[in-house]
Design brief:
Number of strands: 4
Order of helices and strands: EEHHHHEHHE
Oligomer: single chain
Distance between the termini: 39 Å
Structural class: mainly alpha
Radius of gyration: 18 Å
Strand content: 5-15%
Shape: globular
């Protein structure tokens, strides 16, 4: 292993992070670290707030950390709770059908409950439902589905 590449055993796969991935400018690295940290914070909030995605913000944080800080990138990927969904996305670049269905169900239920019980303004209710339908359509059509092996 050269001094420019650091290899980490994270779960069931090896992830190699090269210092060549880091942004050249110190200011750019600092901004990427700040943006990555904001993404981690929003992802953590998404764990408890229905309808707010978690994994996509963690993936964005990993991308920022990959260019901003080798140490933070490794920390995020090897984190006991936050690392597995990111590593799973890196490995497969798709979601299992079960997870896609859970995402669609969460969008539908949280948006429906908000529109019915929290929002009392009809135009805003319609906007919430429209945005939910767009999200469901996007997840259903454009997010790749992983084929599950037959046993």
């Amino acid at each position: 292993m050269t001094k420019h590449a650091e290899q980490h055993d994270v779960g069931d796969q090896d992830l190699t992070h090269s210092d060549r991935l880091l942004a050249q400018s110190r200011t750019t690295r600092w901004l990427l670290i700040v943006l990555g940290t904001l993404c981690v914070i929003v992802g953590l909030i998404g764990i408890v707030v229905p309808g707010l995605p978690t994994t996509i913000f963690l993936i964005m944080a990993a991308a920022c950390y990959a260019r901003g800080s080798t140490r933070l990138h490794h920390w995020l990927l090897s984190h006991r709770l936050l690392g597995p969904p990111i590593r799973d996305w890196y490995k497969h670049r798709s979601l299992p059908i079960r997870i896609k269905l859970i995402i669609i169900l969460c969008i539908a239920v949280s948006s429906g409950l908000c529109a019915l019980f929290i929002i009392d303004n009809l135009p805003i209710q319609l906007v919430v439902i429209a945005v939910a339908l767009i999200g469901i359509w996007y997840v259903g059509i454009f997010v790749p589905t992983r084929k599950t092996p037959k046993s």
